[in-house]
Amino acid sequence: MNDFATNRNKQLAQTVIKGLESRNMTGYYAENRDEALQLALSLIPENSKVTMGGSMSVREIGLVDALKNGNYNFCDRDNTADKRGAALFAYDADVYLGSVNAMTNDGVLVNIDGNSNRVSAYAFGPKKLVLVVGMNKVCGDVDHAMKRARNEAATINVQRFGLNTPCAGTGKCFDCKSMDTICCQFLITRFSRHADRIHVILVDDALGF
After folding, report:
1. Fewest C-beta atoms under 10 Å: which of 58, 87, 103, 175?
2. Taking the complete model, does pTM exceed 0.90, yes or no?
3. d(C-alpha 182, C-alpha 197), whole Å
4. 3-203 is classed in which CATH architecture?
5. Rounded mean pLDDT of 123-150?
6. CB within 8 A of 190, min separation 6: which ones?
């Protein structure tokens, strides 16, 4: 990434962080993936119960490997046959890890889910959320964030999961009612009543989808 883009992202991140603070959420800025990893680990106490959804961003900064190799009670849903049990583990977890499908530059988080275990955990349950968000996911307003979530994140994820939806073949959302749709639940998080619950690490990198 060139210096101009880096400077722009750093400046924009400060705007986003102020927006998050106004919504009783906490924001951080990491200049690279390694810095994001260290920030995330600083927010996760040892011996805590930790789990996550299917976030690629969390994996891309090396956080999953760090948890597996560290002193944490990490429930890895991808390596268990009991998928429902792993999902329910989240509601009493100390820390839930993830990202967003999109967010606004004033701190509103936008997420879409198919099975809805991820957005339900974001809304209630885990004591703390640690969200790793590439600056590529920051949008101007909720309308643009929703369009990004539906036309970019969702269309890539249906291909990733091998699902049969109209958008899988076109790359464009059709607001479908396919049995394979992953656009079942929409969660817009505009404020957190619980101080110190939602932590967003903004990373000067293109992470996830």
Report:
1. 175
2. yes
3. 26
4. 3-Layer(aba) Sandwich (3.40)
5. 98
6. 23, 108
